[in-house]
Amino acid sequence: MEFKEKSLKRRNGSMRITRREFLKWAATSAAALGLSQLDLLRLEKVLADSSAPPVIWIQGASCSGCAISLLNVTDPTTVDDVLLNHISLKYHPNLSAVAGHMAMEKIEYEMIDKMGQFILVVEGSVPTSANGKYCIVGEKTDGTPWTMYQAVQDLAAKAKYVIAAGTCAAFGGIPGGNPNPTSVVHLDEIVEKNKVVNLPACPVHPTHLVKVILELISTGMPALDGEGRPKAFFSRKLHSNCPRRGTSRAKKIGEFGCMNGLGCNGPNTYIDCPLVKWNNGVNWCIGSNHPCIGCAYPGFPDAVSPFYKF
Amino acid sequence: MAKIKIDPVTRIEGHLAIEVDIDSNNNVIYAHSTGNLFRGFEKILIGRDPRDAVHLTQRICGVCPVSHCMASVNALENAFGYTPSDQARIIRNLILGSNFIASHILHFYHLAALDYIQGPEMEPWTPHYNTDCRLTSSQNQAIIDNYVAALEARRKAHEMAAIFAGKMPHVTTVLPGGVSVTPTSESISKFNMYLDWIIDFINNKYIPDVNTIADAYSDYFSIGVGNGNLLAYGVFDLDNTGNYKLFRRGVYTNGTISELDESLIKEYVMYSWYDNSDTNKHPSNGSTTPTPDKSGAYSWLKAPRYNGEPFELGPLARMTINGDYTNGISVMDRHLARAQEARKIAYAMKDWLLQLEPEVTSYDELTVPNSRVGVGLTEAPRGAVGHWIAISDSKISHYQVITPTCWNASPRDDNGNPGPIEGALVGTNVANVEKPIEILRIVHSYDPCTGCSVHVSRADREVISEFIVNPVR
Ligand code: SF4
Ligand code: SF4
C-alpha cells in the first residue's frame, strides 16, 4: 500500500514519523497498546486516506442545523465512513479539533496549497450590510476580521465546486426573510454560478448532500435545473410523489389525508421528500399528519407563509 | 501584559471569539467573550402569523431547535389561554428528551472530548491544541472508538425523536393546540427499542468515559469555577398545571436555592452592539436595535441578568437546583452533571412512553386571538430559554428571545459585571499561549451555542481590532 508520507509530514508538525513507520510501529506494539486486529485495520485505512479530496465547510448566517443534518446521514453511507474514508475535511467549525489562529492558518494554507481543488460547503446566507460585520468567520492571521462576505468570495474563487447547503445558503432562508435586517444574499448572487450546486431544504437533506459530494469527487458537476439544484432530487414537485395524493382531504391538522386546504406547500415545492423521507427513513412532515411548510421553496419563508391557511 | 485571542472558537454552535489578558505568570486577568453573528430573528418575526413562530424560531439553533419550538409553543399557548392535553404534553416531552440526549452526546464526544484526547491522526482531528493528553494510549483509543460509536448514538437519538417529530433537526409536528402526530403501538415500540439502545450507550460508554476524563483531569474540579450563581426555568412538565416538572425552576446562589421571579430578568447592552435605549429592559418590553459601529461594544450578545447579577445556566444548574448533583461548580462538574442528566432524562422517558395512548391524536384547532401577550420558559440542553410574544391584530407585534448562551457567554453588563464564561476564565493559568487549551476546556464546558466564532490570536503580536474594548478598570 502506498502512503502519502510527504504531505502528512508537512502538514502535521506534531507527527514526526511517517505513516508507514507509524503503522509498522503500531502493528508491532499492538498488544502493548491494546489494539485489536480490527483497530489495526481501521488504522491502516485511516492512514491510507490522506489523499482524499479536500473539503472546507464554513458557516454564515445559519443555525448549524445543516451540519447536524450531515451527521444524521445513513444513505448512501454514514458520516464516520464519509469522514474516515471518502473526504478529507480540512476545516469544519463544529468538528475541527483546532481553533483560533491555527485554524485560520490552516484555511489560508489550504486555500493556497489546494487552489482550484477543494470543495467548499457553505451553510447559511451571507450578510452584506455594515460591511459584513453581522457575521465574522474568524480573525485572519494578519489580525483583521474575516467577514463571511469576504470569506465566501476568497474561498469560492479558489474552490473547484461550491455547495450551498440548505435553504439559507441556496436562497437566503429565514435570515433573508422580510425585512432582511442584515441584507443577506445567497451564494449564487456572489459566486460564479457555474460552480455552485444549490441544495435547498431546512436543514439540507443529508442524503442529497453526501451524494452530491461523492458525485463531485467521482464524476464532476451533476445535471442542474434552472435554480442550480441537482435534477436527480429536485426535478419533480413534492406533490407529484406524495403518497397522500388522491386520498380524502384532511379537515384538520392531525388527520390522515391530503393536506391541501390546510396550507400544504407540496404542490409548489420541488424536492423528493416523499421518496427519501428523513432520519434514516423514519418519518417525514406529511407522514406525521402535518402539511409541508415548503422549507425547500426558493421563497421560504415569506412566499410560503403563513404556514397554516385556516 | 499580553493578550490571547481565540477567533474562531470551534466545536461550538455559532460564531464566538474569546480574548483574554494574561499577566507575566500566564494567569488570565481579564476575559472578553464576543458573539460574532447577528441575524435579526426578532425583527423578522414582526407582522407574521403568530403560529409561524414555532417553525421560524426553531431555526435560531439547529442544535437545540426543539427547545425553541417548545418555548415558542408555550408562549403561544400562554397567549391563547390554552392548556395542551396529557397526550400532547407527553409527546412533546419525548421529542424534547430525545434532543437533549442527542445534544449531550454530541457535546461530550464531538465538541468537548478533543480537548482531552488525541483524535485520529487525520483531518479534521489534526492539527489540535491538546498539549496535555493524560490518558493512557488504551484509554485514549477507547474514547476514539466511542467517538465513532457516539456519532451513531446521537444519530439514533434523532431518529427516535423523528418518530414523533416528523423530522430532525427542525420539528414539524408541534403547533399551538397540540401535536399533529398520532402514536401507534408500532411507533411506540420502535421508540422503546431506540431508547433501550441509547440507555445502554449512556450507561456503558458515555458515563464511564466522562468518569475516565474526570479522573485524569481532576484539577479541572477547581478550574473554571464560575460565579456560584445558577438559574433554571425548569423543563419536562409532569402534569398540566406546569408546576410539577422533572426539573423544577429555581435560582441557586452560593448554596441557597430560592424561587425564580421571572420579572427580575433584564437585558443590558452597554457592551453589546445595540442601541443604548435597549438596555435594562425586561424582554416583554425589550427591543433589539443593532448599532454595528457602537464604540466600546464588543459582542452581538446582550447581557441578560437576574436581579442585576450574572447567572450560569445548563445541566449543572438544573441538576444542582433539583438536588441531583451536589459536588460543586467547575469544568468537570459541568461534564459530569450533563452525563448524569442524560441518564435521568432517558429513564424518565421510559415512564412517559408507557403513559402514551396509541391511536390518539391530540390537537385542537385554535383561533388566533386579536391581542394578547404570552411567555414561554423552558430549557435547552445548554440552559434556560425564554420567548416573550405580544400579538396585535392577530399578528406578532413583539417577540424577544433570550437564549441560554446569551447568559453564559454574555459580555459585561452596564455595571461592568462580566458574563459567566468571562468570569470563569479569570485566574486560569495558561501553560502554552500558542495553544491555550485551558481556555477552550473552560469555554466548551458551558456547551456554548451562539453560532459563535472564537478568536485566539497569537500572544506575540499586538492585537489590533476594532472589536476589542480595553479592560474596564
Ligand atoms: S399532502 Fe400536500 S403534497 Fe401530499 S398530495 Fe396533499 S397537497 Fe400534495
Ligand atoms: S416535506 Fe416540505 S417542509 Fe418537510 S422537509 Fe420536505 S420540503 Fe421541507
From TrEMBL, chain B:
Keywords: Iron, Magnesium, Metal-binding, Nickel, Oxidoreductase. GO terms for cellular component: cell envelope. One of its GO terms (molecular function) is nickel cation binding. Its cofactor is Ni(2+); Fe cation. Mg(2+) binds at residues 42, 401, 455. Its main location: other. Fe cation binds at residues 64, 452. InterPro entries: Ni-dep_hyd_lsu, Ni-dep_hyd_lsu_Ni_BS, NiFe-Hase_large, NiFe/NiFeSe_hydrgnase_LSU. Ni(2+) binds at residues 61, 64, 449. Gene3D superfamilies: Cytochrome-c3 Hydrogenase, chain B (1.10.645.10). The keyword Iron applies. It is found in: Cell envelope. Pfam families: NiFeSe_Hases. Belongs to the [NiFe]/[NiFeSe] hydrogenase large subunit family. Heterodimer of a large and a small subunit. This is Ni,Fe-hydrogenase I large subunit. It comes from Anoxybacter fermentans.
